[in-house]
């Protein structure tokens, strides 16, 4: 199979969406970030000029616009840009888009996709490094999609656009240049299906987004020490695939959760709680969380590294729970 | 009166339904039939009714927390609206919205946002949806003067103007009344501007200021606005000056006496501490006077319509009170489509 970059896979999915659905439009076309991959959007801009609207710097109104357009039957893909700016549009996201279906008693659909680039990007400092997906998981009514591979991102974007629900599509700037096998045809990947990225018998490592790659690298290191880690990428947080996670922990008896959201009330915390509540009997050791400490993101490289869930930190967490008795 | 008989009577009938619906809501609250705070539309009926008269069936509406008048004026079922306010399973939204989030998408009534200004962004989005689907419909966003204090609303003006979206913003300025507005009557404690139209006008949005108690003027403004939008000329901002019924100044309105249309012809019947408002600002009494003066309806014909509206609302109350409460086992329904 041909290999293409994560960014190219996103661009392909967006192009298929334009071709597939006349109600599809793009609000904000800098979906691929500001790196060299952004050029991949140029042909799409040229092909669908009257269905792409680049908005002013007005996140609140843009998030609200996406919700209202979806209520009116359109299918907008709304780029918020850097994940930190989600907070500027927070009210229309959690007070309008997320709740409209429920408070209309199922008479209204809100098929909007919001897109962000979250996470520790290298020098983003405190205002360009946020990962709002944990807070969004705490706001009922939003589907949250968070892929890690080029193949997954393409199929999950297609599912997000076909979904009748408001969806937050969480990408990571550091994923954009990663290359891997991607089918050429149009396809979807269902929400709520975790992917086992690597099989292993000794410990389950659940990771999301860019940290999946850190977890896979950790597994390579650990295998030399005789530890076989199973690496699971949930791919969507809402809906969350409990079964795959609980079955894996049932086989391994040990769990490490590695993720870029904050330690307190973060993704790692929620997944740990799910396993503690529903998989307690399987556990041979305490669950370990490798998350971002509750510290605003500092700018300088060594300081930023100090809060990043790195491969080394994942290895250390695995070693610690393997040694627990 | 410049409006023809049919149009003016249609607007008037919408106003009667709005008024008697709100009087019933106040009564049901006093009877402790529902909890929560709520917002009463009395005093603004001419604006809502005349704008809604100017819309087509496929046009889309988003509104603000002072929403009862808009959903009733749109012609949505008063039974289901009242049942929703009482939190009943038969309400428009199965008891999930209550007074604050009433919606009926089957009539293009997309949303009530109780976040001040929230509806302006949603309505702008609805207009974006209309434009991208290449339809000729328009979106209308109703909000009060307080919404102009929200940044999201100003951002939405900019976007609507940039993209020439088919949206009519209807600002129901209920702070000062038409007379007060001529005296510079803007709420000085909360806004530094002396004219709300300066804000949308800064983005080149066509603005119309109108006496919101005059059904002729509001209808003419709404027709102009809707035609501009359908022609692809971009957004319009209407500022309608009304004065909210003083009885609803607190969040929990005092018990209203039921409006007696005879006061329109015999002002000596007007009594009580809100008498000045009734004489000078009540749009329903004004429309009543104007309809008979124009020869569009006799006093008897008007009183007949008034009774029909009262009877219809009484039925809505009976329906709502007799309706079952929602089943707690269904609480998790409709989180996702």
Can you describe this structure?
The complex is a heterodimer of chains A (325) and B (337). The mean pLDDT of chain A is 97. In chain A, strand 10, helix 8 (211-223) and strand 11 (229-233) form a beta-alpha-beta unit. Chain A has a seven-stranded mixed β-sheet with strand order 3-2-4-5-7-6-12, with helices on both faces. In chain A, strands 9-11-10-13-14 form a five-stranded mixed β-sheet, with helices on both faces. A two-stranded antiparallel ribbon of chain A has the order 1-8. Chain A has 325 residues and is α/β, with parallel strands linked by helices. Chain A has helices at 6-20, 42-47, 59-71, 90-97, 100-103, 133-137, 150-162, 211-223, 242-252, 267-278, 301-307, 311-323; strands spanning 3-5, 24-27, 52-53, 75-82, 113-118, 143-145, 167-172, 179-181, 195-198, 203-207, 229-233, 236-238, 255-262, 288-292. The longest helix of chain A is centred in the N-terminal third of the chain and has 15 residues, at 6-20. Chain A has twelve helices and 14 strands. In chain A, 57% of the residues are buried. Chain A is globular. With 337 residues, chain B is an alpha/beta fold. Chain B has 13 helices and six strands. Chain B has a six-stranded parallel β-sheet, sandwiched between helices. In chain B, helix 2 packs parallel to helix 9. The model of chain B has no long low-confidence stretch (mean pLDDT 94). The chains are: A alpha/beta (325), B alpha/beta (337). At the A-B interface, helix 3, helix 4 and helix 5 of A face helix 5 and helix 6 of B.
Q: Main traits of this protein?
A:
heterodimer, A: 325 residues, alpha/beta, seven-stranded mixed sheet, five-stranded mixed sheet, 14 strands, 37% helix, B: 337 residues, six-stranded parallel sheet, 13 helices, 44% helix, globular
